[in-house]
Design goal:
The chain is an alpha+beta fold and 582 residues long. The chain folds into four domains: 91 residues, OB fold (Dihydrolipoamide Acetyltransferase, E2P) (Beta Barrel); 153 residues, BirA Bifunctional Protein, domain 2 (2-Layer Sandwich), CATH 3.30.930; 117 residues, Gyrase A, domain 2 (2-Layer Sandwich); 55 residues, no CATH class. The protein has 13 helices and 22 strands. The strands form five sheets. Strands 6-9-10-22-21-20-17-11 form an eight-stranded mixed β-sheet, with helices on both faces. Strands 3-2-1-4-5 form a five-stranded antiparallel β-sheet, with no helix packed on it. Strands 12-13-16-14-15 form a five-stranded antiparallel β-sheet, sandwiched between helices. The longest helix has 23 residues. The protein is globular. The structure holds aspartic acid.
Length: 582
């Protein structure tokens, strides 16, 4: 009997081994493949979540694909030459089987073979069948293991799990929100939380000290490979901490989870400032699995006669050994891409044994060519790509995007390279009304050295916020928070939020800060993304039991769909006719 024995079975299908030979066992599951063997016998692959066991049954047994059965038999070695080394149970089979049909099944809507590609809408419509596949069962278990490791690490570090409400009020994380009409107060709405941000800060005012929650968050944003309307976060907040304390707590949890799933503990996570990440990788979520770093070329061309290089910022990347792979068409493609990203152009040079092969080579002086080659450590056969502009951010972004286009492997492909990105700017530009826009959220503490510039030069103010990045995906964000109402009031003013508006939207928070808010900070790790990468998947839908399609639909339940007039009347709502599909 195994630890998985129940009243109906003694063992799981996938756990039987040669050491069990001779035992009489009972297993339950779904009928996979059936193969006739001579006139009187048939082989059935019986499947449960743990795997498959081959059962030798009487040919007259009438079971078909996906019937639910209970099989009792004696475990024996497979005859010489018929073992299957691809299968964990490939050395053994169940013989002399008695088969009890527990339930019949219609033929499955698609083959449950991991190697067969099935349309996603069909998979989601019949998700309960899709979930029977080995890959999906494995993914659900990776997810559960990650959850368990994260919880364990937080508990060990003295964090207390607290649940926060789903029916809430707007949370300023910058996304569109889902609203829920109130039946008791017609015309008023709850808002589903984009994150427990405000609730967890209030827990700190409430003396909780170290809070965590595996929290469901909802954001009404366009769906992508790494984004669903609802997603899970390991959400934490702690009092009397520095940024390094928070990064330490989160690193511990994430490295524990990675170790539990992969069997290997990743190296300590390196810290890179936002400025350095932009300079070297042209991105705030750099993929560190490959080189192609951005090199600074501005000093090389300070006295240049070449007009295209008379610019405030010149940077380049070296693509090793790629000169031969890039003919005219591909180079034109890269140039078009750079222009579409906002660059005035893209200069390419191929390094040859005799010098540089490029339409612009003749405009460069010998010193410039030498400086270029040394700075980029260029060797014969390399392709060099250069962007120049007065806008440094644009140069970095264009080259950072080309860097990814040229060399980025699928996100889930190893090795796993984590990075902490610190010192994000407090604001990420101006909105249409000319007000700065929070890069993280309005509760983020400015960098202490930059606080003075909050009013005078807001766009140059750094923040005490940080992201965790894995293989080029943002796994999460956090910050040290503003805990003083005077600084919070200055922050709202800097964002162009009037006192009345701030009082209307966040009065309860500002009020709370008057009653003794401790210094605090926190973080949230996106669970779906972490699990997807650790499970070897490039789309988070593969690690979510019931995801929505790209267009936000649930083919299983047909949600969203209209509700009856009675319900609408109760809620005090009248609907407009459905919008024409554009
Ligand atoms: N609430 C933030 C988010 O969901 C995370 C944090 O600042 O703790 O991104």
């Amino acid at each position: 009997m195994s630890e998985f024995a129940t009243a109906m079975r003694t063992d799981l299908c996938g756990t039987l081994r040669a050491s069990d030979v001779g035992r009489t066992v009972t297993v339950c599951g779904w009928v996979g493949r059936r193969r006739e063997h001579g006139e009187h016998l048939a082989f059935l692959d019986l499947r449960d979540y743990s795997g498959i066991i081959q059962c030798v049954v009487d040919g007259s047994v009438d079971v078909r694909s996906e019937y639910v059965v209970r099989v009792t038999g004696t475990l024996r070695n497979r005859p010489e030459g018929t073992t299957n080394s691809d299968l964990a149970t490939g050395e053994v089979e169940l013989g002399d089987c008695e088969v009890e049909i527990l339930n019949v099944a219609e033929p499955p809507p698609f083959p449950l073979n991991d190697r067969v590609e099935t349309d996603e809408i069909v998979r989601l419509k019949y998700r309960y069948v899709d979930l029977r596949r080995e890959r999906m069962q494995r993914n659900l278990r990776v997810r559960a293991a990650v959850n368990k490791a994260l919880r364990g690490a937080m508990e060990r570090q003295g964090f207390t799990e607290v649940e926060t409400p789903m029916l809430w009020t707007p949370t300023p994380e910058g996304a569109r929100e889902f609203v829920v009409p109130s039946r008791l107060q017609h015309g008023s709405f709850y808002v589903l939380p984009q994150s427990p941000q405000i609730a967890k800060q209030l827990l700190m005012v409430g003396g909780t000290d170290r809070y965590y929650q595996i929290a469901r968050c909802l954001r009404d944003e366009d769906l992508r490979a790494d984004r669903q309307f609802e997603f899970m976060q390991l959400d934490i907040e702690a009092s009397f901490v520095s940024q390094d304390d928070v990064l330490g707590f989160v690193s511990e949890a994430v490295l524990d989870a990675a170790e539990l799933v992969t069997g290997e503990r990743p190296d300590p996570i390196p810290h890179i400032t936002w400025e350095e990440a932009q300079e070297r990788y042209g991105s705030d979520k750099p993929d560190l699995r490959f080189g192609l770093e951005l090199a600074e070329l501005t000093p090389v061309f300070v006295t240049t006669e070449f007009n295209a290089f008379k610019a405030g910022c010149i940077k380049g990347i070296r693509v090793p050994g790629a000169a031969g792979d890039f003919g005219r068409n591909k180079l034109d493609g890269l140039t078009d891409r750079a222009k579409a990203l906002g660059a005035k152009g893209l200069v390419w040079l191929k390094v040859t044994d005799d010098g540089l092969d490029s339409p612009v080579a003749k405009f460069l002086s010998d010193d410039e060519v030498a400086g270029l080659r040394t700075t980029l450590e260029a060797e014969a056969g390399d392709l060099l790509l250069i962007v120049a502009d007065d806008d440094r951010h644009l140069v970095r972004t264009v080259l950072g995007t080309l860097r990814n286009d040229l060399a980025r492997p699928p996100v889930s492909q190893g090795p796993y390279r984590y990075a902490w990105i610190t010192e994000f700017p407090l604001f990420e530009g101006l909105d249409d009304a000319g007000n700065p826009v929070s890069a993280h959220h309005p509760f983020t503490m400015p960098h202490p050295d930059d606080l003075e510039k909050l009013e005078s030069e807001p766009l140059s103010v750094r923040s005490q916020s940080y992201d965790l990045v894995l293989n080029g995906w943002e796994l999460g964000s956090g910050s040290i928070r503003i805990h003083r109402s005077d600084i919070q009031a200055r922050m709202f003013a800097a964002l162009g939020i009037s006192e009345e508006e701030a009082a209307g939207r966040f009065g309860f928070l500002l009020n709370a800060f008057k009653y003794g808010a401790p210094p605090h900070g926190g973080f949230a790790v996106g669970l779906d993304r972490l699990v997807a990468i650790l499970a070897g998947e490039d789309n988070i839908r593969e690690v979510i039991a019931y995801p929505k399609t790209q267009s936000g639909l649930d083919p299983l339940t047909d949600a969203p769909k209209p509700v009856g007039d009675r319900i609408l009347a109760d809620l005090g709502i009248r609907t407009l006719p459905p919008q024409a599909k554009g």
